[in-house]
Write a structure and sequence with these properties.
Elements (H helix, E strand, L loop, with lengths): L6 H6 L8 E6 L2 E11 L10 E7 L2 E4 L4 E4 L4 E4 L6 E15 L17 E2 L2
Parallel strand pairs: 1-8
Antiparallel strand pairs: 1-2, 2-7, 3-6, 3-7, 4-5, 4-7
């Protein structure tokens, strides 16, 4: 993946909701983007934090003790092991930075999620 990419062009080509696409790789990490809308199942990642950057729209992360609302250009990291349920408004686009192979539904649901569709 050494080609230059435009995030908006990549995201405009993705129809599926909550389906991460690997935009780039950095060492042993994937930089993933996804169009998201509605509710995503509650899950946790036992071995890694989960970083969210909102590119457009609004993302709500329901945590055990609070809900974190993120707008464009805001970031939040869910600490490893913390259950969270993402919920997104229409037109929300996010970028995630995760260790390669991380399943988006968490460590307890490997068969149910995806590690991210590789582009190009």
């Amino acid at each position: 993946m050494s080609d230059k990419r435009n995030i908006d062009t990549v995201m405009d080509a993705v129809d599926q909701k909550w389906m991460p696409h690997v935009l780039a790789e950095v060492n042993d990490y994937d930089v993933k983007v996804a169009n998201v809308e509605g509710d995503f199942p509650e899950h946790a990642h036992a071995d890694t934090d989960e970083f969210f950057l909102v590119l457009a729209g609004r993302l709500h992360l329901e945590l055990p003790d609070r809900t974190v609302a993120l707008g464009p250009h805001e970031v939040f990291t869910v600490p490893r092991g913390v259950p969270h349920r993402p919920r997104a408004e229409e037109g929300t686009r996010i970028l995630m930075f995760e260790p390669r192979g991380t399943v988006n539904t968490g460590d307890g649901n490997e068969g149910a999620g995806t590690t991210g569709v590789r582009l190009g």
